Amino acid sequence: MVMTWILLAVLALLLLPYVLGPILVFFTVRFRMPVEIVPVDFERQPLPEGVRPYFDSVHQALTQEGFEPAGAMYLPALVPNTKSLLAVYVNRATCDTAMSTIIVAANQFSTIQTKYVEYIRRYSDDIVIQTNNSPQSGSFKPMPGEHTTRFRAIDDLHRLFQLHKFLVEKYKRGGRPVLRLDSEFHGDAARYVARAGVEESLEDQTKAGYMARVPEGFRPTPKGAFIMTWNELWPLKGLRQSRADRHADEVIQEFDRSARVY
User: Is 26 in contact with 225 (CB distance < 8 Å)?
Assistant: First the structure.
């Protein structure tokens, strides 16, 4: 009998995150609108020591690929207890946008939680190809026409860009490439990130049932809270990671077999 109670207690402790986690997410996670964005001039406002080497190396790699800096900014309060620092780049020859992002614990630039680069190509028929090397899987539901591929093991941004262009050829349809940063936001990177990068994404998740609009912005729905929490817990997190890695490996093999330089 004692052993049974012990096993039940252990089981209850193991299941606790699956029950309390979604409840905490539902009641605490809020995405406040309008998005608070603080523009940064890297020349006048030197980067903190903890993140400077990464942004410097990314800047050099992206400019070698034909990208130009479009703007840099902090997002100090988008997600509780974290701060995002990102730089936006544009390649007008290919109609690609790139974002270099670091997410850190709030007020602790020495505690980097994740860092990655993402290339983005949009088309007039709502096809979007996004290619990144983020170590983390996204929590949101993929939208129709959105093709996101994550190569978490690839740090070489030239190879990542080649894979991105390969995927563009694979997924594009009959639309024309659209550089929204210029056509809609007149080169204003902060407005582009606030609207196209954050608010529209949350609106899409509202349509998917993951988010709900509230006076202050957006909050998870009960459905969204459970799915987003469970996706970050065992075994779903490992299964999703394995599936993403398999897909990335298949793309790399297909790309290497093509023996084509993009």
Answer: yes
